[in-house]
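INTERNAL AUDIT FORM
Audit reference: QA-55
Scope: verify that the stored structure record matches its stored sequence.
Auditor: D.O.
Record contents follow.
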Amino acid sequence: MTVAASTWRALLASAAILVAGAASAQVTETPPAPPQPQPTELKAEEATTLTMLPPQPQWEYVRGGYGLGGTRIFDGATGKMRGEVDNSSRADIAIDPAGKYYYVADTIWTKSDRGTRQDFVAIYDTTQLKLQAEIPIPGHIIVGGFKTNFILSDDGSTAYVYNYDPASSVNMVDLVRRKFVRAIELPGCASLIPNPGVGFSALCSDGSLATVDTTAAKPKITHSAPFFSATADPIFSNSVYDKTKKRTIFISYSGLVYEATMGPAPSIAPPFSIQEAAGVPKGETRPLVVNWLPGGGALMAMHKLSGHVFVLMHKGEFWSHKEGGDEIWDLDLAQRKVVKRRPLKSPVNNIEVTQDAAPLIFVNDKEGTTYVLDAKTMEEKRKIEKTGQGMIYVADVGTPATAPLAEAAPKPTPSTITGG
């Protein structure tokens, strides 16, 4: 054996000893197994339902807008969202004057936008927003942007749902017994208005006001004399109704203000110009004449306690009635005078005012932002983003004497006034 071979054997033996030693060291340094988790006791899930206050005077109800369903509820005093009423983008809503229910006149299909069509009035309670009933009806016009498509009687016992299939008709619904009563044909008329003790009225294409007496076994329809021209100077569909004085206020595209006293034979007073009431020239129907004109979606709101009507106005030509408002004009009906004008930073399409002693004005723009103003000073209180760009509603109810639920009535919080 050579020295080199002997040396290699020695080296291999040493390497084997080192490997064995390393393996031995590796085994002895393995950490102990982690402790096994102890079994936990599984508890069954419990379903809970939150409750909210019934409709409050300073809450606003905002429709999502074109293509967006749901009606979101916001507290005007705090800007916080309180809940959402479930409805499709084709629905119309109404608030029970007793504050117990939200009513939705809706249309759906079994396959989204096709299949079997279903028209109904849904009833939700106001504290849990839980569906209470669905009342099938023969039809429901699918046109957004009009508060006058779905109205309630003053006492909240009856609903009237406008329909156009194949011609103008109105579905009468008993909300106490929760059943469909009858469909009333009403050719050439739309834009429904409550008429206490009688039934309802509606504007007609011949310029008259139709009144439908639903108290008899067979509804009786009468018409006033024509008082406006549907082609020369139409009236906006979104009128405002004051149940305390049984009157309805209309405004025409040119800015003429009409007041109708409701009853079996409604009386309509001669109109006056809102522009002249503000000290500017009367609205013109001639083309290429630029003036202040009313415009927007739901462009009027009435504070019934004070008799003030808030109107969205813009600078434009006749037939620019769909343009949003650049200003809010505060019209005192008793004086027939515009007592305040409030410029706006950007055009708004919808306006509403709360019915309490310290009223708030809500307006929203095409971006879906709501601006909350003090109705007396016109100062901005706050803005609420992403509320929706559709029509705004308020509850015509008084402040409850007691709050029967756990949620306390919110207190107003101070905010920086930035201008609308």
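Auditor finding: record pair retrieved intact. The two ends are 105 Å apart (CA to CA).
Action required: none
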